[in-house]
Amino acid sequence: MAFFSRPQSSSAVKIAQPTDDDDKAKFSPKKDSPQRQCRNILIYGSCRFQDKGCIYYHPPPSSASTNVASPDPPFPPSLSAHAVNAPVFVPRTSLDVVPSAPSTQSLPFSPSDSPTPYYASQEVEYEGTSLGTYYGASQPTFIRQPLDYHLYTNPIPETFAPSHFISDNLREELQKRSEAAHTIPSMPYHVPEELQGYHSLVPLEPITPERRKLVSWFSSVYRATSVNDGATYVLRRIENFRLTHHAAFGMIESWSRIRHPNIVRVREAFTTRAFNDSSLVVCYDYHPDSQSLMELYFRSMSPSVLQGQFSASLGRIPEATLWTYIIQIASAIRAAHDAGLPVRMIDPTKILLTGKNRLRINACGIVDVLLYDTRQDAGLAQQEDLVMFGRLVIALCCGSITALNALPKALEVMSRIYSAEIKTLALYLISKPGPHKTIAQIMELIGTNRLAREMDEMQIANDRLEAELMSELENGRLVRLLCKFGFINERPEFAREPRWSETGDRYIIKLFRDYVFHQVDENGNPVVNLSHVLTCLNKLDCGSEERVMLVSRDEQSCLVVSYKEVKACIESAFSDLSRGSR
Q1: At 92, is the pLDDT very low, low, confident or very high (cuts 50, 70, 90)?
Q2: Has residue 568 got a pLDDT over 60?
Q3: Could you tell me the sign of the dihedral formed by the alpha carbons of 370, 234, 338, 296, in that order?
Q4: How far apart are CA 326 and CA 439, in angstroms?
Q5: Confidence label for 377 from pLDDT (cuts 50, 70 and 90)
Q6: How many whole angstroms separate alpha carbon 87 and alpha carbon 235?
Q7: What is the three-class DSSP state of 520?
Q8: Residue 22 contacts by C-beta under 8 Å, 6 or more apart in sequence?
């Protein structure tokens, strides 16, 4: 009990009768002495009244510096004429920095433990009598770095199963899709501000002179946001197209009723003059960060492959993946044919890979509107779908879109790499049309075993996604609990009481907040433990009977309460705030 012990020495002040000497010493007036040094010398270095009757002592100029106790020499009060006319000092040494690279090509992102600057420094050398050269130099270019997908938590070790959050790979893939859905191209573009209830139009494909035509018209693709639901969609525009029959939109209505996992859903179609021409616009669902089969397998082809020289040593698609592609495309064709519609888009440029081995046929229904005047027979168009399907299978097997031009060589390559079932299926698809050549016959050639195996893989993938979703199920509940904390803690005033958040039950909430988030170790360092936070919040939300000791910040008081009592305090305080906001 050192705090209550008596002091070693007495702090009492002795009271004595004052004497006359003390009064004289206390009230004696201070007289000026000519031996006292003038304060102007100490402050300014000189006295302007030295020769005009100043009574204080003025030391000679040689000894004036010896009276200053500072180790550094005092600054002169003003510049002399010699100093004013002196030349400007020009340093010839350059800063010890790394000059920036002249190229503006984006660098690959490599995370490291040490912080790195966002831009490189530039070497600076002063020339002449001004700094115009430095300020006139080119400014550093800010290089856009990719997103860091592990900002709020470190990667989970492989030995531990992610029980509280989704896996890092899935979160990174979803973050890439979210980033792609909000990315704006750096090149300038000119689009309408609003288009038939859609705004924030952004081109998804570069408009180049080498772009391909869709039937006989050029097309462009935009990403837009709907005014009705705020969702993002894709608008495919057909340039300089004049609609002659409004009944052609009936094909779009037929396609909009088809909902299939391997077909990009068609929403609506309309005509517009917002682009200073007569354009046809068809709206589809948007799948960000997707690639077409052309970009994925045929964009980086060598000249030998383009000329029909195939080699088995080239990187090929695994047969299991190829069968997955075949089954998905066949399933999409079957859904369209059962509805009496031809697909017409079995093309590498129109088939998208939207996920891991997940294909979707894009731009459906638009050719039906463009060729509505020709009135082609639906049966013949469906037979043409099967032929296009066979050409696509041969192109994927050989890795060349021109493989059908050298069919014997292509079949030889397919025989060496893949099984005979794929070769038989491809030959049947490109054979002559017949009454018995239907998509149902294609399903029989694929085989029930492969269809059942594909269904098993889909169900396993569904179970995996549900397990990932279960790990994020409780996050919304904890966020709502943290929002209640934010409404209550540190509130400046409520019900005309400035210290509302510091009194009553709210004081317990404040101490519990410190217990959860503001703990320190024995050295006074903050304890950042996510497991402790999650454990306390879950016990609080369920109202556990477990008791904790809450200590004030000055360590002068402590309270032992249960999680159930803290939860009751939070509910009572939040109810008061809810009633006050009505």
Answers
A1: low
A2: yes
A3: positive
A4: 12
A5: confident
A6: 68
A7: strand
A8: none
In our burial notation (b when 16+ CB lie closer than 10 A, e otherwise), range 43-68 reads: eebebeeeeeeeebebeeeeebeeee
Q: CA–CA separation, 387 vs 394, rounded Å?
A: 11
417: three-class secondary structure by DSSP: helix
Torsion sign, CA atoms 207, 208, 211, 215: positive
Task: Determine how many CB atoms are found less than 10 A away from the CB of residue 460.
Answer: 10
Using the CB atoms, write b or e for 162-199: b if 16+ within 10 Å. beebbbeeebeeebeeeeeeeeeeeeeeebbeebbebe
**Can you state the angle between helices 563-580 and 475-488, rounded to 10 degrees?**
70
pLDDT (0 to 100) of residue 299: 74
Question: Which among 567, 391, 400, 379 has a CA at the least distance from the CA of 488?
Answer: 567
Question: How many angstroms separate the CA atoms of 480 and 514, rounded?
Answer: 19
- Quick one: residue 35, left, alpha or beta (phi over 0 = left, psi -120 to 50 = alpha)? alpha
Q: Rounded distance, CA 581 to CA 409, Å?
A: 78
CB-CB contact of 352 with 292 (8 Å): yes
Rounded CA-CA distance 272/233 in Å is: 17
Q: Which of 315, 323, 361 is nearest to 342 (CA)?
A: 361
Q: Amino acid letter at 463?
A: D
- Number of Cβ within a 10 Å radius of residue 81: 7
Please report where in the chains the tokens 């079932």 appear, as a residue: 421
Q: In this structure, which amino acid lies at residue 485?
A: F
Q: What is the pLDDT of residue 9?
A: 44
The span from the CA of 406 to the CA of 416, in Å, is 16
The answer to pTM > 0.70 is no
- Interval 42-55: pLDDT, tens: 777 788 788 877 88
What pairs with residue 551 in β-bridges? 558
The reported pLDDT for the residue numbered 132 is 42
Residue 237's H or E segment, with its range, is strand 232-238
Q: How far apart are CA 422 and CA 196, in angstroms?
A: 46
